[in-house]
Specification:
Chain lengths: 105, 195
């Protein structure tokens, strides 16, 4: 993929997406109705994932992936969720991860 | 593939930054702790701009492209995913740490005793922003050995900041370092018990 060819020369995504914004395909748009780049992006969103992870798998700059995802959000193929905010990082959340890490030892 | 919006809920996220100088082992650490092969992406980050809302400010905004390595550990029972972000090592990228550090639970500053000065910037950054961090001395082969007290003195670390040794290549060691950070965050952020 050539970064700014797949985005049609666009350099700014239309949706507000951060690296840890979560994305997931809705199942409402079939991959075979999309161009190869959008289809590849959509396939990576089969289960909830992050913009960063999709970008890592596509080996594309995050901004390019944000544009592709914006298109998919626009057509209803993908739904998105904001990253967990600082205020939502509770003691319970930290403890859950802490206990989970301990089981990995 | 059916549409099941509620049965496939988005997970909670926790983010830990792995910081330190160039070549100190950040990517190695992320790779050891992560359940996936570390991924990398380039992000265009905007330098601070005083008036981003006005068109007059547009010319003064500039962006820098930075490569970041990251990994993750999933905890399905609790629907939580821990993300580990290796921060860019070069000094000239400090300015964009604000964006990376937003929403982070804490940071691990990796130190190499042969080049302790390389992590001064990271320590200063987290101290100034009140972000919880600990210092983990990455034990390189043949690295000169210093006692923890010597390292603490050299880094002028506050006595409350944990200092420990780790081997970034070792999954157990990296995991234990993550555990130490979260335990530190929990004990430090907990309300003091009333006597």
């Amino acid at each position: 993929m050539r970064p700014y060819i797949v985005t049609n020369g666009r350099t700014h995504p239309s949706a507000t997406l951060e690296l840890l914004s979560m994305v997931r395909s809705t199942g409402r748009v079939a991959c075979d109705r999309l161009g190869p780049e959008h289809a590849q992006t959509l396939r990576l969103c089969h289960s909830p994932t992050t913009v960063a992870e999709v970008a890592g798998h596509l080996r594309q700059p995050a901004v390019v992936v944000k544009i592709l995802l914006s298109d998919l959000i626009g057509t209803g193929a993908v739904t998105t969720h904001d990253p967990t905010a600082t205020a939502e990082v509770t003691t319970d959340l930290i403890e859950a991860v802490l206990n989970g890490l301990k089981t990995r030892l | 593939m059916g549409s099941r919006p509620d049965s496939d809920a988005f997970p909670w996220q926790l983010k830990i930054l792995i910081a330190g100088g160039f070549g100190v082992g950040k990517t190695t650490f992320v790779g050891s702790a992560s359940e996936i092969e570390p991924l990398s992406t380039e992000e265009h980050l905007t330098t601070a701009s005083l008036d981003t809302d006005s068109l007059a400010g547009v010319e003064r905004k500039s962006t820098t492209t930075v490569a970041m390595d990251f990994g993750r550990i999933t905890f399905p029972e609790d629907n939580v995913v821990l993300y580990l972000f290796g921060t860019p090592g070069q000094d000239r990228f400090w300015f964009m740490w604000d964006e990376l550090s937003r929403g982070t639970v804490g940071a691990i500053v990796l130190a190499d005793t042969r080049r302790l000065q390389d992590c001064f910037g990271a320590i200063e950054f987290f101290e100034q922003r009140g972000i919880y961090f600990l210092v983990a001395v990455n034990e390189f082969d043949n690295a000169m050995y210093y006692t923890p007290d010597e390292v603490r003195n050299a880094l002028a670390l506050h006595e409350s900041v944990p200092l420990l040794l780790c081997d970034a290549r070792d999954t157990q060691s990296a995991t234990r370092t993550l555990i130490s950070l979260l335990e530190y965050v929990l004990t430090t952020s907990a309300p003091q018990p009333t006597p």
